[in-house]
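Dear Dr. H.,

I hope your travels went smoothly. While you were away I took the liberty of generating a structure for the chain from your last submission, since the lab meeting agenda had it listed for discussion. I wanted you to have the full record in hand beforehand rather than looking at slides cold. The sequence, exactly as received, is reproduced here:
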Amino acid sequence: MNIVAPAKLNLCLRVLGRQVDGYHMIETLLLRLRLADEVELETGGEGIRLELDAARGGVGSETSADPRRMVPDGERNLCWQAAARLFERLDRPPSVRIRLTKRVPAAAGLGGGSSDAAAVLVGLNRLLGQPLPPVTLLELAGTLGSDVPFFAAEIAYGLAWGRGQRLLRLSPPPPRPVLLLIPDFGVSAAEAYGWWSDDRDAAEAAAAAADLVADVLPGTLAAGGPGAEAEEVRPVAAGVLPWPAELGRWEALAEVAGNDLERSVERRRPALRKARQALQAAGAELALLCGSGSCVAGVFADESACDTARARVPATGPGGAAWTAIATWTEGPGER
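The corresponding predicted structure, in token form, is as follows:
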């Protein structure tokens, strides 16, 4: 069985807070892309056998960078873990060969690993005669990562919150061309959320100190009086999203698009800010960090604008390092 495992964009990502167990609760709008990995499943044999292959450069890519770069192998790979957990839930010895052909860059915030894991869960469940109902499959997906339930639900567009298991299916906006810029470094979700927490804690400490100074020395610069200047590091507060029907319009999405992780990640990886600004200068209607990074995406009004931007945006980052540029489309009604 062959299954397509698409990438995704987080058009809106709000970090609602950190639980006492350290896990971050989020609210996010997820939209699938046509850029996708391929997962081939074959039951039989002993154990779980994972093979990694590469579609060099991927769809619409300008470089020959190996998309398997930074992809874990063996038991560390989410595909392997997905198969292991499904067989464990069924109380059966594992027996499957998984061939994963990568196009979606890893550690880029595009959800490639999560999508691959969901493809294994959904595909393997079908091959075995669908012993697990959809609700159980989604629960199992949630144990693998917060993006896995979205892909396992096989919807093109949705609002997810909490740890990803809470999903609301939405009607996607019309397809738009997207230009992805991927640097030669990755950003893990643990790093991105850790930086967000560090910045939030620092902002709260600074605010508490300013309040104390204001009580003792009112009107001073340290108290935030006239002329006081400080970098704002507090994440954007979660806002109220428009009525679900409105979220299928790009005009409405332009008002709510954003990523709470963006500022914290860009502070540690300033090259990503330059890439996002380059996309904006090249005419992107939306330009934002993908998930936890390190990919930066620009959404354009039409293919001509995307092609023009692709020619204008530099192919090298700071220090002469090559960036991978991939042109793709969002999924949506009226596919071209």
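Two observations you may find useful: The domain at 2-169 is CATH 3.30.230.10 (Ribosomal Protein S5; domain 2). The two ends are 26 Å apart (CA to CA).

With kind regards,
E. W.
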